[in-house]
C-alpha cells in the first residue's frame, strides 16, 4: 500500500498525513478512533474531536485486526474552516441549536466571518438570525470559545508531554493546574511525581528528556535521589539508607558523576528535603514519623 511501510512489528516510521475528520467511531476519556473523509482510519488522543475540520496528523501506521490499517497519531494541528460551505458543515456537526436551515442563514449573513461573529458577538447573532434566541446565541458562543480554549490547552500540553501520560493523568494535570499546566511542567516535569497519581520517576524523566533538561541538573538529580530513597522504603522497608549505598544506586539510575551527586545531596540536606543522621539518609517525612514513634514509645515506657 503506497506510503505505508510496515516493519516486522506491524508499525511504520513516523510520517504526517492530512485530512478532514468526518466520523468519530469510538471515544473514551481523551482517546478517539475516527475516520477521515477519504476513509482513512485514525486513532490517538484528541480531547474534543470536531468533525468537519481539516487536521494535519503526525504519527505512524499500525495494523489493527478490527479497524485495518490505522494511523496512530501522536500529535496534530487543526485548521478551522475558511470557506462558507465548510463553515456551514462544521456548524451543523458541532454547534448546538444549529441545523441545516439555521446554518444557511448564518453563513448568508456573516460569510467567512461566521465563526468569529458567533464567538464574539452573540447579541448580533440573536438580532440578525431567525431561530436563534439571545440565550441560544450565548450558549453557542460559550461552547465554541470553550472548545477552542480547551483545544489550545491540550495542544500545548501535548507539545510538552507527548504520549508519556495516560488520558486519566492528563485530565488530572489539567484539573490541578488548568491553563498553567504546560508552563509548570516545562519549568519542572519532576513536579508531576509529587502531584499526579501514577507518575513515577521514569515517566517524569522521559518528559524531562523531551524538554532537553540537563541530565546532571539539580531537578533531575534531586528527583532521582528521592526515587531511590522511596523505592528503598516502600519496596525494601528501609526508612534509612546508608549514604554510600544511596549515591551508588543513584549513579546507576542517573549516570551522573559521583562528585556531582554528592554536591546535590548536600544541597538537599541543606534544604531539609532529606535528613542526614550519621552515615545514613532519611526522607524528611519518614525521619519525622520515626522520631515521633520513638518519642511516643519512650513516654509510654516511663
Set down the secondary structure blueprint:
Elements: E1 15-28, E2 31-36, E3 41-45, E4 54-64, E5 68-79, H1 84-94, H2 100-110, H3 114-120, H4 122-128, H5 134-161, H6 167-177, H7 181-187, H8 191-195, H9 201-210, H10 218-236, E6 240-242, H11 243-254, H12 258-270, E7 274-277, E8 280-283, H13 284-301
Parallel strand pairs: 3-5
Antiparallel strand pairs: 1-2, 1-4, 2-3, 4-5, 6-8, 7-8
Helix pairs in contact: 1-2, 3-5, 4-5, 5-7, 10-11, 10-12, 11-12
Structure characterization notes:
The radius of gyration is 27 Å and the shape is elongated. Helix 1 packs across helix 2 (100-110), helix 10 crosses helix 11 and helix 10 (218-236) crosses helix 12 (258-270). The protein has 302 residues and is of the alpha+beta class. It has 4 domains: 15-79, Nucleic acid-binding proteins (OB fold (Dihydrolipoamide Acetyltransferase, E2P)); 84-151, DNA polymerase, domain 1; 164-210, no CATH class; 240-301, no CATH class. It is 53% helix and 20% strand.
